[in-house]
Each structure stands twice: as structure tokens, then as C-alpha cells.
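Request: Show me your protein:
***
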Amino acid sequence: MKYIVRAVKYFIYFSLMCAVIVTILVLIGAVEGDINSIFEEGYRSVGKIAIFFALVAAVYPKLGFISRDIAEGKSWDEMKEQTVEFMSERRYSLESESPERVTFRFRGLAGRLSKMLEDRITLTKTAQGWQIEGLRKDVIRLSIGLENILTPQKDAE
């Protein structure tokens, strides 16, 4: 269900962005206000664009969201202070916590809107350590940082 909601949300987002761009082009006089002069095939082009946006929106949630394992066996109580501080430095605040599942949300409305309110980062306890889930670029960046601060560094000899 979450996948479908994300796909619909991205379709709406792409459509609104296209409408905003076309509106700006009309307002600055770059194109005429008639749909037939904006697009070569007029309303048929709008249908083709909508189909393209639907296809991209259907695939994007699969590509844009990932989960990644963090090989750290500490309990939440042991790593809470370091993790909350690390996430806070990256503009994430603790949303909810339990021994098995912790969620963070991005601070600031502008940042949350730029991520289309898909800014939640979830840490889930697994048998091997923790699993982090969220937007691909955030998960990769945050998982590397969390591994660095939570894993004891061994001195090179």
C-alpha cells in the first residue's frame, strides 16, 4: 500500500511541476497561452506526458527508497545518545523510539516539502544489527556515517 501511495504522490508531484513550469513560461511570455501552441499535438501531447509521468511515478518508489544493513549489535539504549546527536547534526529529529524500531524526521518544512514529506528514516533492529530505511541518498549517506560513529575504530599497526 505504501508503494501505491508513493507512486500516486510522485505522479501528482511531476504533474504539478510541469504545470508550474508551463504557467511560468506563459506568464513571462515565452509561449502563448493556448495549449495547441504550447505543445505540438495540443491535448494529445498532454495525454502522452501524463502517461510518461505515470510510468516514471510507478517505477520511482522502487528506485528511490532502499533499506540498508548496519552491522552494529548494540542495543538502542547503548547507541541512543550518539545516534540522536549524529542525526541532529544532519537536521533530523527523533520522532519515535522503541527497543526494536526508531524513526527520525527531517526538521524544517522546506526540507520536508523538498522530499515530498517522504523524509522519515527508520532504524529497525535485526539479528545482525540494525537496518536503516528511507530515501536512497539519505540512507546511503546516513548509514555510512552511523557505521563510522557506532563501530569502534581499530588502530592501524
Summary: The first strand starts at residue 65 and ends at 70. Residues 76 and 98 are 8 Å apart (CA to CA). The chain is about 55% helix and 20% strand.
